[in-house]
Fold this sequence. Notes:
This protein is mainly α. It has one domain (6-113): Methyltransferase, Methionine Synthase (B12-binding Domains), Chain A, domain 1 (Orthogonal Bundle). Helix content is 62%, strand content 0%. Helix 1 (15-35) packs antiparallel against helix 2 (40-56). The longest helix is centred in the N-terminal third of the chain and has 21 residues, at 15-35.
Amino acid sequence: MVERNRRDFLCNLSKPDQQAVLQGLRQRYQVLLKVYLGQGDAVDETLEQVVSVAFSADVPAQLLVKIHVQVMDQLATQLRMEGHSTAFLKDYRLALIEAMARLNERYRHAMALGPSSPHPTRSPETAR
């Protein structure tokens, strides 16, 4: 059964705790992009870490997209400064698509199981 603690939702955390969660998610996402076009085992494990953090903290999808764009912008800037081409970075959109698909499956599975308590486990951002 999928259990989440509402107190761990991003919207219920203090600003410093929100920043810590988002920084950890950003760091995991950077690692994901480094290994994404590499070996399969490391990709699956890293992707699962990103999805687990995003799901547990109830991170809105828009915020995950924003993190992807920020990380990609940083990587593109670094590559340009080193004189490398950035054309291959388009392939990394697949990492975002896969992360979003897995996150969607996690939410779908949690909704199919129903809430384990009388209190819903969705934040205001996801309750639409």
